[in-house]
Write a structure and sequence with these properties.
34% of the residues lie in helices and 28% in strands. The protein is α+β, with helices and mostly antiparallel strands. The strands form three sheets. The chain has a four-stranded mixed β-sheet with strand order 7-6-5-8. The protein has a two-stranded antiparallel sheet with strand order 1-2. The chain has a two-stranded antiparallel sheet with strand order 3-4.
């Protein structure tokens, strides 16, 4: 048995063959290892939801509304390769406040959340989702 420990993740696995090919941020890339033998003890759904609920008001003051969590974390199916998918709304007030800098500010918020959660974060803006987005994202989101 081999055990790797970092600030956010503990991996434990058994295999006759394995090779550690590199580090990317907090991720460990492992080849020839049975996935079912890997366990991620990092942040779980409940912790992510609690964190999003706690920062929601802070960002709402800017006109950036955190709606909820969707994707693999919301279903409890996250893997070592998963990112955290967050449904948001960048309101017209947000656009008015930042103007052409709105996209940069969204990237800053994304980086802030990723740093705190220890996992890459992706956003989907509710205002840009069509019928497919409604079916697969909006209706399956856990709202905070």
């Amino acid at each position: 048995m081999i055990l790797f420990i970092s600030s956010y993740t503990i991996l434990s696995f058994r295999s006759k063959k394995f090779s550690l090919t590199g580090y990317f941020s907090w991720d460990i890339i492992v080849q020839d290892v049975e996935k079912e033998m890997c366990y991620n003890y990092g942040m779980k759904k409940e912790e992510v939801l609690k964190y999003l609920a706690n920062v929601k008001k802070q960002y709402a003051e800017e006109g950036f509304i955190i709606k909820g969590l969707f994707g693999s974390y919301s279903r409890g199916e996250e893997t070592l390769e998963s990112d955290i998918d967050v449904l948001i709304e960048a309101t017209p007030e947000f656009a008015d406040r930042y103007g052409f800098g709105a996209i940069s500010r969204i990237k800053e918020i994304q980086n802030e959340l990723s740093k705190k959660l220890g996992v890459p974060v992706d956003f989907a803006d509710i205002t840009g989702l069509g019928k497919t987005g409604e079916k697969f994202i909006i209706k399956r989101t856990i709202y905070v």
